[in-house]
Amino acid sequence: xxxxxxxxxxxxxxxxxxxxxxxxxxxxxxxxxxxxxxxxxxxxxxxxxxxxxxxxxxxxxxxxxxxxxxxxxxxxxxxxxxxxxxxxxxxxxxxxxxxxxxxxxxxxxxxxxxxxxxxxxxxxxxxxxxxxxxxxxxxxxxxxxxxxxxxxxxxxxxxxxxxxxxxxxxxxxxxxxxxxxxxxxxxxxxxxxxxxxxxxxxxxxxxxxxxxxxxxxxxxxxxxxxxxxxxxxxxxxxxxxxxxxxxxxxxxxxxxxxxxxxxxxxxxxxxxxxxxxxxxxxxxxxxxxxxxxxxxxxxxxxxxxxxxxxxxxxxxxxxxxxxxxxxxxxxxxxxxxxxxxxxxxxxxxxxxxxxxxxxxxxxxxxxxxxxxxxxxxxxxxxxxxxxxxxxxxxxxxxxxxxxxxxxxxxxxxxxxxxxxxxxxxxxxxxxxxxxxxxxxxxxxxxxxxxxxxxxxx
Length: 457
Hints:
Layout: H1 9-19, H2 27-46, H3 51-58, E1 62-65, H4 76-89, H5 104-118, H6 122-139, H7 146-149, H8 154-171, H9 175-185, H10 202-222, H11 238-242, H12 251-254, H13 278-289, E2 297-304, H14 309-312, H15 316-320, H16 325-328, H17 332-342, H18 352-355, H19 358-364, E3 367-371, E4 383-389, E5 394-399, H20 412-425, H21 430-442
Parallel strand pairs: 2-3
Antiparallel strand pairs: 2-4, 4-5
Helix pairs in contact: 1-8, 1-9, 2-4, 2-5, 2-20, 2-21, 3-4, 4-5, 4-10, 5-6, 5-8, 5-10, 6-8, 8-9, 8-10, 9-10, 13-17, 17-19, 20-21
């Protein structure tokens, strides 16, 4: 789909959203939506007993919508906030390598809450998930790296816009209402990345905040509230506000819209930490499996993309010794060190005892970086290390892409296994985990989404 000269960006997107129907969705897109449902709901269960979720639940209100893994019902906005916060809270959720953005943790919670509130069927849920995830991925390609550079979290700001579009599609809003929904969402988008300073919790809530905000924007638009048509490209529009350092390349958003589905290449994380650290963990594990002991290592030098440094490498002294388990998820040196010792970096690796482990701290302190001007970030996530040993030998390991992504995708069976493991981590029984798998298999073809009630408690 190309942008007509008389159309604003939002109007062009709205034309696609209004025309979207389940009958036109490619099978691979439908399968991606099912995998996202599995991944997101499993993560909701995994995080349900965490302190940050208890705090979020305490801020919610009662109603008829489901917060996965929690008894009773919540109002739709609270359900979307709780589910989105839980899904993204451990940083174990999907990512889009061109962004990077986390789509499932925003769109799935928004659409599930909306469909429960409005008594919409599985087909409307599927349309909303598919279009919302696709829109979120495409929005992230317009100004690569510039959102982070401006101090904002791309998932948070793009997520609000995409959730509004997704909810508009599920509701079957008119073109004008859909445009207003995105226009309204532009004034709701938010999410700064200052959580990096001390490893505090605000990033965890960004996906949930975007989910509930996008839903609210669509419902307000349905009621007649007006938003600006030029929300994306206007003089005071979204990209001017959140990515002022570069000119937006809107062709990456609009070219092939409705014909080419980028969301089919979404990556599912093997490790519960920052996306760009994942290939470096693979390299650290390869180093450990080569037979090298931590005491044999003098230094590890990593080649990195410039756009990752301010979040995952600097201040280097802080990244060598993160203060909180959440902060450790965004320290490449810590993630590499824990991967070296444990050969994994799952939910159990990011704890107070792990960040206090002397051996992990000592190895992390030996890891530094240099910027590789030829690094492909954000188009491709790679890892490279050069370890200098006490005997003078140097060992190099390279990971050419992120495992779980387009180059090495996880199957539906892999995602199901991850989902079950996360359910067990969250205290569910095997029978409850199987119930979730059954809901995932049938929800998008069901007459309604009432099966979500089976995922409470």
